[in-house]
Amino acid sequence: MGQRRPRSAGCLLLAIAAIVIVVVVALLLWYLLAGRLRLPGPKPPGPTRPSSQPATCPDVLMLSVPGTWESNSTDDPYNPTANPASLMLNVSNPIRAKFPNERVEVYTVPYVAQFSNPVAIPPDGQSSYNDSRSEGAKRATDKLAQTYARCPLTTYVLAGFSQGGVIVGDIAAQIGAGKGPVPEDLVLGATTIADGRRDVGDPGEAIEIGPTPPGVGAELALKGLNVPGITMTGPRGGFGKLADRTFTICAAGDLICDAPRQALSPGNILGSLNILVRAAGNPVHSLYNGYQVDGNGTTATEWTVNWASGLIENAPHPAHL
């Protein structure tokens, strides 16, 4: 009897160790399969600008980035049809109709645009937020870099909604810090609608259009949360040299951009994840096409169209070869 107790204790320790190993391996696999966030790094400075550019170059490139569930990886960037109800179509279509192609190239970034719930049972079969956002950021950045390399005098207008607003805001912050795919002086302006990294009160943040809700973007409310497929990156730290040209629109009660810190907490991971996943489909988040930003009844999308139109109308007319 005296010899069996140590053997039983040893077996118990081995069993516990085996369970720990299985849990660790399972967590590692979960993180690897869900994907990690891969954001584009700084771009090297380009060559000295010439006095003219090829005739095929537009005077202005308008980059439009749709929100979650409003695009896919194979969508046509010049005739997007992945989601006919995409909010950004209410911005890009009027701009495309108003200006000739040689004046403005309207490019809608095609990307997977999904947000998988990591705790859904059974799995929902969607791409993770990390993979989706990474793809959108890379495709948007690549388009800007490629255009600048071919058309060094083209200027830029950036706009995005929801997940696309996060992507546009990130790119604008990089450009404003001198680390983006195009020089700061070529960017006419940027606007984000329902930006998940929206911040208020700090120097260098975006200019608020319409009422200023007291909350912050979900990525700030959940700063530090890192579960498989979802990395909440916190505040950007301002838009640098683009701060005077960057605008943001957020409706009160939209948890994507107006999240009270007490409602989303990394200490309550499951509850916070459920709130975050539901927020993308909440009624407030889906009504920006009718959300009024001033006393004249101008909606968020109308304001963005008017803003972009003004920039394009007043943009330089570079010489062409």
List the helices and strands and how they pair.
Blueprint: H1 4-34, E1 52-53, E2 60-65, H2 89-98, E3 104-108, H3 129-150, E4 155-161, H4 163-176, E5 187-193, E6 207-208, H5 218-221, E7 226-227, E8 230-231, E9 246-249, H6 269-279, H7 300-313, E10 319-320
Parallel strand pairs: 1-10, 2-3, 2-4, 4-5, 5-9, 6-9
Antiparallel strand pairs: 7-8
Quick description:
This protein is α/β, with parallel strands linked by helices and 321 residues long. Helix content is 33%, strand content 12%. The protein has a single domain, classed as 3-Layer(aba) Sandwich (Rossmann fold), CATH 3.40.50.1820.
Provide key terms for this protein.
321 residues; alpha/beta; Rossmann fold; six-stranded parallel sheet; two-stranded parallel ribbon; 10 strands; membrane; carboxylic ester hydrolase activity; Cutinase/axe
What can you see in these coordinates?
This is Cutinase family protein. With 321 residues, the protein is of the alpha/beta class. It has seven helices and ten strands. It has helices at residues 4-34, 89-98, 129-150, 163-176, 218-221, 269-279, 300-313; strands at residues 52-53, 60-65, 104-108, 155-161, 187-193, 207-208, 226-227, 230-231, 246-249, 319-320. It has a six-stranded parallel sheet, sandwiched between helices. Strands 1-10 form a two-stranded parallel sheet. It has a two-stranded antiparallel sheet with strand order 7-8. Strand 4, helix 4 and strand 5 form a beta-alpha-beta unit. The radius of gyration is 23 Å and the shape is globular. The mean pLDDT is 87.
